[in-house]
């Protein structure tokens, strides 16, 4: 059993050495691929160009934020800052007004639906009465020229 444990430790060491060799080979291959892809001079590579462009864009973003903050500061100092601060209150006011108008629209819509139904029933009833009157006239022995003409 002791011999087996020693044997297992030796195998583990050998595998550890093999693993380190493989890691070293992978690192060398990665360096070779980078060198072949971007050339030996990394200064002219695409990666370096993109890094510079990213740096320039980050600087531009910082400058724009600083300008915007400066404008807000000047507006606050000039007394216009209240407008910016009141924007949230104004926005809430608009939202409340929007809800009120939406409720009003919903009420008008439901009233229109009731009226449509009511008037449709009334028209249907009047057509039935008219049909009954026409039937009554046709059942009577009245000459066609004496009948009431409806438009």
Estimated structural class? mainly alpha
Radius of gyration: 45 Å
What is the typical, i.e. mean, pLDDT? Answer: 79
Largest sheet geometry: none
The coarse overall form would be elongated
Helix content: over 70%
Low-confidence stretches: none
Task: Count all strands and give the number.
Answer: 0
* Number of alpha- plus pi-helical segments: 3
The H/E string reads: HHH
For the record, give the distance between the C-alpha atoms at the N and C termini, rounded to a whole number: 117 Å
- Beta content: under 5%
Structural commentary:
This protein is an all-alpha fold. About 85% of the residues lie in helices and about 0% in strands. It has helices at about 1-40, 45-75, 80-140. The protein starts with a helix and ends in a 12-residue tail after the last helix.
